Amino acid sequence: MSKPIRVLISVSDKIGVTEFGQALVELGAEIISTGGTARTLRGSGINVIDVAEVTNFPEIMNGRVKTLHPAIHGGLLGRGDQDKEVMQKNNIQQIDIVAVNLYPFETTIAQPDCDFATAIENIDIGGPTMIRAAAKNHAHVAVIVEPDDYANVITELQNNSGHVSEKMRQELAIKAFAHTANYDAAIWGYLNAQKDDEEFPEDWSVALKLRETLRYGENPHQEAALYTNGTSVPGTLIAAKQLQGKALSFNNIADANAALECAKSLTNSDNIVGCVIVKHANPCGVALATTPLNAYRKAYECDPTSAFGGIIAFNALLDDATATEIVANQFVEVIIAPGFSDEAVETFSSKPNVRVLDCGEISGGTPDEHVLQQVEGGMLVQRKDITIVSRADLKVVTERQPTEQEITDALLAWKVVRYVKSNAIVYSKDSATLGIGAGQMSRIMSAEIAGQKAAEAKLTLDGAAMASDAFFPFRDGIDVAAKFGIKVVIQPGGSMRDNEVIAAANEHGIAMLFTGMRHFRH
Length: 522
Prior knowledge:
The chain has helices at 17-26, 35-43, 51-55, 70-77, 84-89, 105-109, 116-121, 126-136, 150-159, 166-193, 250-265, 292-302, 304-307, 320-329, 342-348, 404-417, 443-456, 476-484, 498-508, and strands at 6-11, 30-33, 49-50, 97-101, 142-144, 209-214, 224-228, 241-244, 273-279, 282-289, 310-314, 332-337, 355-358, 370-375, 378-383, 395-396, 425-429, 432-437, 465-468, 488-491, 511-514. By secondary structure, the chain is of the alpha/beta class. Strand 12, helix 15 (342-348) and strand 13 (355-358) form a beta-alpha-beta unit. The longest helix has 28 residues, at 166-193.
């Protein structure tokens, strides 16, 4: 080699950096470094050149300004022979490789005690600037933003007489621009969340990182992958640890997320446990009980046929008695809960293909505030439907007043209907769903299907509650409710024919509650 490789290393994540530095030294490289990185490398006996020696200017403002200098950025942006003369004139030497990763902004803001000033101080300036400069000039510079790439670059240098191939430089540059784009998006998301107003911003930035490539998408001919937004709030699917089972599929992930979200909405106070069984993104059985076993039994009874091959979610630790019954009772794709007893884990091991996910404690951490849905050429963005309706919010609009038990049944049905695809009807009684009708173009058809499901499961709807995710446009839905013996209906209200619908309820002796809130789910 006619001249040594010049490498600039400045990293917050020190994983693998000393091994990288040692391998570079063996290749005869000169290493330029900053602050804590320089101390780490020297601590391993690796000789480094301080950035201040290159710039002839000290680090100032507690390290805020150290690499923002022509001697550094000229070395990153120099284009070989094209800029050789100006670089010689200004005593600027080419930098061949840059290894930089950024202040841990996302990790910092995830800390419960992080205040605004701390967050702002953890916005990296010099790092993204060096990364972008090197990535722009990837025809001459290799830029590394992930420790996993250290070994690949070393191999390239060893096999190519101290050079990184054009192909790898381009691949590293693409990764580098994605890295800084996600970093900026995370900062934007944090600052945008600090605003008091609820206006949607002119621009929307999304930061996503590949978690894993999936076997396929909704169907085998579709390629798919799982990306995360960088956060890992306990009690979520993304934070879940897989204890056993096959790799999660695209549909497993979507369904498990739907099941867990519904389970989290159920009370877990006063020793009340919630169980949700989901099939094709729709709940097919939901129940509350004092034990996981009884909650599961009641949820399963709602629709045993649909429960086959479903997803089961709990909002409390799962014990061995419940695990034993599930294994004996049905084929299940995924089970997710905020913890499992050791005995339950052992029981599930007899079915090694069952995916068992421990989502961690459901702590009420900050949920995603917005829901994004892709459309051709764009994105729909809306605030998440998380508003809770309480007893105090209900308005009785019929002559007959509901009993306390009927209100309790209605509120459970109302919680569940939020997670059922529209048009949605849910029947419930005694802390369990009895029939669920989902995804029909006609609301009356959803009501009929929910009744058919109850009949198939040999469950009586007499005295049960009925929830509708949107208002009844005609009285026919109430007539169906009366046919099944429903005694209380909970719905948003707001139809032009509300008076007709209320009159039908009065005619049948049904109590009706208005929530003033719709729960469409598409």
